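Propose amino acids for all 190 sites.
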């Protein structure tokens, strides 16, 4: 591994990290088992972060933007690659979720890529969720977002109220749901 790292470092230094060499670097990253979609301002330091930590302790490779990306990464490139590479997605819905273009994009891509999606409704009811039309999205994107949201709202998920809920139980329940869905996805692929 040391020789491989040295060889890659030399190519990076010479500016040759293109084509097949970038594929080598990609293979050094662990695969993404679970993609965690969330509105950072509302859930990064609570359920999304706690779930990422617990799944990591279980030996899984979750993707959480704030923990899986580094300075210089292209947001949509990294996010899209993680979604296409994951087996299961977790969508953490929060009161202002529909205002985030990243959340809307991630959910639409998870649904379009036919990934299993586990919804977690945190401090919001499914019926309260809506896509916010702030005139920044094309009509076709709005349609994609609304279709994906409707599918997620009609999927059995976990409901949590942060003012009265048990965080450790939520993390256990969400982890159990992830593991169950990973096992089912694995069975479907064989």
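Proposal:
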């Amino acid at each position: 591994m040391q020789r491989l790292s040295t060889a890659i470092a030399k190519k990076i230094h010479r500016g040759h990290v293109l084509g097949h060499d970038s594929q080598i670097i990609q293979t050094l990253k662990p695969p993404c088992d679970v993609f965690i979609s969330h509105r950072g301002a509302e859930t990064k330091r609570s359920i999304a972060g706690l779930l990422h930590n617990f799944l990591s302790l279980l030996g899984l490779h979750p993707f959480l933007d704030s923990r899986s990306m580094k300075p210089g990464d292209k947001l949509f490139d990294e996010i899209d690659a993680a979604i296409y590479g994951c087996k299961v997605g977790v969508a953490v819905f929060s009161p202002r979720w529909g205002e985030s273009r990243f959340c809307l994009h991630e959910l639409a891509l998870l649904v379009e890529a036919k990934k299993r999606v586990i919804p977690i409704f945190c401090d919001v009811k499914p019926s309260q969720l809506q896509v916010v039309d702030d005139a920044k999205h094309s009509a076709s994107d709005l349609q994609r977002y609304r279709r994906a949201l409707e599918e997620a709202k009609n999927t059995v998920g976990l409901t949590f109220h942060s003012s009265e809920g048990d965080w450790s139980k939520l993390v256990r329940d969400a982890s159990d749901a992830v593991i169950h869905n990973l096992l089912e996805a694995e069975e479907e692929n064989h």
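The first strand starts at residue 34 and ends at 37. Confidence is low (pLDDT under 50) at residues 1-28.
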